[in-house]
Amino acid sequence: MLFEINILTIIVMAALGGICAYLANQNIAVFHDGLRPLYPQYLDGVMDRKTLFATSFALSFGLVIGFGIPTSIAGKIIITHTIMLACDIIGTLFSDDRNGKWISTGVGALFGVALLFGMQVLMNIFTILPIDFTGDLGLVGSLIIVSFSVFPAIAVAYQAGVVKGGIVLVLTMVVKQLTVLFGSFTINSVNVQINADGMALLFAIISMVFVATRYNKKSDVGAVDAFAVFGKNIERIKKNMLVLAISGGIVALATTLLLIAEGPASLTLTAEGQYFEAAMVSLGRTLGFIPLVMTTAIISGVYSPAGTKAVHVPAILFINMGILGMVGSFFVGALIMIIEVLLLGFIAAGMDKFPGMKDLGDNARTAMSKVLDIALLVGGMLAANAIAPTIGYIWVIGLFFLNQVSKKPLASMAIGPIGAITMGLIVNILHLIGLFPIV
Q: Is 188 helix (H, G, I), strand (E, B) or coil?
């Protein structure tokens, strides 16, 4: 793994696991966006704690096992889903009384530390196998940055039609090509190299937001704000602003320490040291998640331990800046969380006036998901083929279609990482029985 195991990282992972479990247990914040809207039923007494836990487990366990852990192993940084979804489960497992509060916090902290050591142990085991395939796992995410600049064009196509989406796609390609040709120059003997993928993504995101602000179905004059009735929920979130700020600071600090990454794309770029590009990808995901996180928070009175994910953006840029970077990351993360909570009512009202922005969030998430599905699948195929040129492609393609017909399919974007990792284990088994000689 890319992170170091020392006193600081152990404390940070314990703090991250502890606070995420605490927030879930005290009904303040959960990471799974689908779990958040169920909390009003629990808070109103319609749903009991056992049902809440069972629902949390059903929603999150498969993602932790089938997506979080394989993606973390492949990228060598723990993806946030692995720890935060698990802590949703831990928090809801215990009652939200005085004892349950501290028990869940302690278990969450222990899980964070166990995850820190466990991921490193897994990587160490892989490296001592007869055929070390860990180097090839980097290919799993090799196509993400190239393909990720496509998602804004797809989002525009969903929102404003395929023609406008096609225009954004073509212009994105033009911007990238122009950056490749003219993005390298010298200023006062200093060579400046502008990243073409980063510029293409930046242009595409700006285009996506521009289209969304112009593509609005105006609501009737005098209509009642859709979110006005949820004022009590907003106030409930604001009452927990301090602990949410601490959570935002810890999440940001963990990101700066390379312990966690907010998504597969930013994980891959961060692992490769492309921090600006990773921050841009994280910003793009934040734009997509603002409407979802805000609306589910407003209707439930329950927020997210990572907020809209905006805390990750500056945190990535603070990497390798030493103690000042770590301190700055924590305080900026906390400040961002405070600003998000304070703006909750304003943003909710803005979504009423500019419904196109809410549609943008829905469309952007759908587009990102589809792009990542393909990028990780093809990346997984490339990695599996690098590990086993004779059978790698067959294995991943077969897994993909078997998953499609399964009664309980895994998330599509998990198939690439799972296929590559299992291919590595398979070739080691084949080698032990003499069917896969080392060339």
A: coil
Host H or E run for residue 192: strand 190-193
Sign (positive/negative) of CA torsion 33, 39, 40, 46?
A: positive
Calpha distance 342→58 (Å, rounded): 32
pLDDT in tens, 18-27: 999 999 999 9
Least confident of 35-39, 153-157, 173-177, 228-232: 228-232
Q: What's the number of CA atoms in the CB half-sphere (13 Å) around residue 222?
A: 0
| Cβ-Cβ contacts under 8 Å for 345 (sequence gap 6 or more) | 227, 231, 234
pTM: 0.84
Separation of alpha carbons 339 and 335, rounded Å: 6
Q: Which of 12 and 127 is assigned the larger pLDDT? A: 12
User: Which one, of 143, 29, 168, 43, lies nearest residue 87 by Cα?
Assistant: 29
Name 177's Cβ contacts closer than 8 Å, sequence gap at least 6. Answer: 196
In terms of C-beta distances under 8 Å and separation of at least 24 residues, what long-range contacts does 96-99 make, across chains too?
96/25, 96/26, 96/27, 96/49
Residues 6+ apart with CB under 8 A from 195: 179, 183, 274, 276, 277
Tell me the pLDDT band of 357, cut-offs 50, 70 and 90.
Answer: low
Residue 366 CA to its chain's centroid (Å):
14
Q: Is 370 exposed, middle or buried (0-12, 13-18, 19+ CB in 10 A)?
A: middle
